[in-house]
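pinned: reference chain
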Amino acid sequence: MTLPFLQRALPRRAVLGTGAATAGALALPHTTFAVTLVPGIEPVAALAADKVYFEETGHTISGPFWRLWRSYGLDGFGYPLSEPFQDGGVLNQYFQRARLELTPDGTVRLGLLGIEAGAAEPAPALDGAPPSGPDVRYVDETGHTVSGAFVFGYDRWKAILGAPIAPERLVDGGGYVQYFANSRLEWDPTNGVRLGLVGSEAATQRAVATNGVAVPADATPWSAVVAALVEDEAARRALGTQVSGGQGFVPEFGEKWITVSLARQRVTAYEHTKSVFTDLCSTGDSAKGLTGKGVFAIWRRVPNETMDSTSIGYPVGHPKYYRLENVLYTQYFDNTGEALHYAWWHNNFGNPMSYGCVNLRLGTAKWFWDWATLGTRVVVA
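pinned: its structure tokens
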């Protein structure tokens, strides 16, 4: 799932299409769910649910709030603490780590709980160039810096956090906190980095009604979703092991990915765990150069190009020299020049023919060009 970017400025609320230091662990005991599915609820139905009831707090997440919540889950938002309610024409719902808001125009955004907590501080004046380095994130719109252990959390939860509004500071007990527009990062030697419980704190301060409600008749229990996710992950792991020959590949939930079988000379497109397209192909011939096994990702796409063997070390005059014009729908997936592409010069698909690339028929090459994108993973096994 992709999420729209935060607005770069800091308005009254930070807009999302997907939000005093205390211990950052979830304020509920960890729950171990049985993998057994809830009777009468199939895994597919549970994973497709758009209204989910959390037995732990007695509250439901649904619609656009649920679609955003599931992108970050418990780590990002925590459990729901309230039912949605109107506040000044905006639908609000509180979570342990955030407040989600639905405006009349259908925009879902995160409440600026960090700013509302009064944690904003002026940024220190720069003395020279902004700080930089692998463990530093300088945020131009506020002039504050994220560094050290907090870089991990910032990179992971940037869309939830918003921009930093204060420097990190030491707290009693040996930990550190840093406030952001929407939330707070916390660190201590025992628990590491996590998002603070700013939603719980704000709900308590505002006396938000948090009493649980009865299970709606049309809601799916969270325990059923968890069980389905466990079963789904097992299926993805099994399929990844099967198609990659034990290379450790596991397709992500909902991922679009490609497999190239050297033994079967077949290319296949998957969406999640479902095969959506397959055809014969021609990979590297042993006399020319075998296609390398591995888990790759498409990093360059060229709609029409001339391929010349000088780029792979075969100069003009070499027995293996070639120059091929009008090579259509080329998608490079490794750093040695191997790619998926149309091969107009032969019709012997199903047999190794290439210098390492994956030769495709015209219609097949066009299908993969339209379906795939930069970053689409390619498993060669």
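why pinned: The longest helix spans residues 222-244. The chain has seven helices and 23 strands.
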